[in-house]
Design goal:
This protein is an alpha+beta fold. The chain has helices spanning 42-63, 65-69, 74-87, and strands spanning 2-8, 15-23. It has a two-stranded antiparallel sheet.
Length: 88
C-alpha cells in the first residue's frame, strides 16, 4: 500500500504535493487509548439523549403486543413525544 499527501486549491484545478508517494504498512491492531473521548458539549449530549430515547422507542415497538398488532398504544405515544422533545 502507498500513501501520497497533496493539497488541492478551492477550484480543484491545481494540486500541490506535500509528501511524495511512499510505501506504508497497514496497521494490524488499533490502539484504543488513542481515541478521542466523547464530546461533552450541550448539543452532543442532547443528541445522545435523543438517540437513547429513539432506541427505547424502537425497543418498545418491537416487543409490545399492541404496537405489533397496529393498535393504539399509550406508551408508544409517550415515548415518541419524549424522543421528539429530545431532538428539538
Amino acid at each position: 500500500m502507498t500513501l501520497k499527501v497533496y493539497a488541492v486549491n478551492r477550484a480543484g484545478t491545481t494540486t500541490r504535493v506535500l509528501r511524495p508517494e511512499t510505501p506504508v504498512v497497514p496497521a494490524t491492531t488499533v490502539d484504543e487509548s488513542a481515541a478521542f473521548p466523547d464530546c461533552q458539549c450541550e448539543k452532543c449530549r442532547a443528541e445522545g439523549k435523543a438517540d437513547l430515547s429513539y432506541r427505547v422507542l424502537l425497543d418498545h415497538t418491537m416487543f409490545c403486543p399492541a404496537c405489533l398488532a397496529g393498535a393504539p398504544c399509550v406508551t408508544k405515544g409517550a415515548l415518541g413525544r419524549a424522543w421528539r422533545r429530545g431532538r428539538a
